[in-house]
Amino acid sequence: MSIQASELILNADGSIYHLNLLPEDLAQTVITVGDPERVPKITRHFSKIEVQKHKREFNIHTGIYKGKRITVMSTGMGTDNIDIAFTELDALVNIDFQKRKVKENLTSLDIIRIGTTGSIQEDIPVDAFLVSELVMGFDGLLHFYQSEQFLKEAISEEFVKQTGWSSKKAFPYVVEGSPELFEKMHSEETVAGFTATNIGFYGPQGRVLRLPIPDEKMNEKIAKFNYEGRRITNLEMETSGIYGMSKLLGHKAISMNAVLANRATGEFTKDPSALADGLIEYTLDRIVS
Ligand SMILES: O=P(O)(O)O[C@H]1O[C@H](CO)[C@@H](O)[C@H]1O
Ligand SMILES: O=c1cc[nH]c(=O)[nH]1
């Protein structure tokens, strides 16, 4: 049976609904970022840009960096966007748009996020580069898919117990990044981390400006959580969706994080732009090394 028009939605030019891309527009190595303005900051290092498309929060360039074809795309903020972006990225390589059928031979993409984050451990300072080995998602996205087979349930159970996690919130889910990409991207210039992804920047990450939150000690409890010597290192808003959707769809993913803020000490980097540029250069070099 072919996939119906209401499920696989194509634009008049044959491109996929939200990303606006045609299958030939996409490279097999994809860099994702949250901020649409970070895309040209990456592709200014390219020798050639072949494709440029922009719809909603999805700003997308495909081009060549040191002989390698790479697509760079923004996803906007949050795992709700990741659901759309990753489903459509996968459709571009693994669904035949003419026949509206899943291809027999599937393609696996290499996907590298270059993002920003807040550390919750005092000893992971601002301006560090952190590679997420594992992620815990507080966003609930993976519970909408058949994901039980690879979620690390024992870690989630222990986290709920140690932190007294409210049952009114989504049950946390734990997913591993690609070990192969982790090896490629991790070095003595980076810290290996266990990232937590949340559904917002303020209350959900324990920030209080005017609105009180139910548990002001939440970040401290998350930071103290210990599972066989592993601790949660940092908070951001996309990695759980990226790791989860990649596992489900058969792609390899890794998340690179520039530590902008240290929530334990209250510090914020003096130069966010230089920090992001540094992580971009580091990541591009590792991709082609
Ligand atoms: O810098 P990006 O990639 O957007 O990532 C982080 O910054 C945003 C919040 O300021 C969230 O998207 C968070 O995950
Ligand atoms: O504290 C931070 C910094 C960047 N991005 C986040 O989501 N949180």
UniProtKB/TrEMBL annotation:
One Gene Ontology MF term: purine-nucleoside phosphorylase activity
GO biological process, one term: purine nucleoside catabolic process
Enzyme class: transferase
Superkingdom assignment: Bacteria
GO CC annotation terms, alphabetical: cytosol
Entry-linked InterPro entries: Nucleoside_phosphorylase_d, Nucleoside_phosphorylase_sf
Keyword Cell inner membrane belongs to the record: no
CDD domains, alphabetized: UP_TbUP-like
The enzyme's E.C. designation: 2.4.2.3
Keywords recorded for this protein, A-Z: Glycosyltransferase, Transferase
Keyword Glycosyltransferase listed: yes
PANTHER family on file: FI09636P-RELATED, URIDINE PHOSPHORYLASE
Name listed for the protein in its UniProt record: Uridine phosphorylase
Annotated source species: Christiangramia flava JLT2011
High-level lineage: Bacteria, Pseudomonadati, Bacteroidota, Flavobacteriia, Flavobacteriales
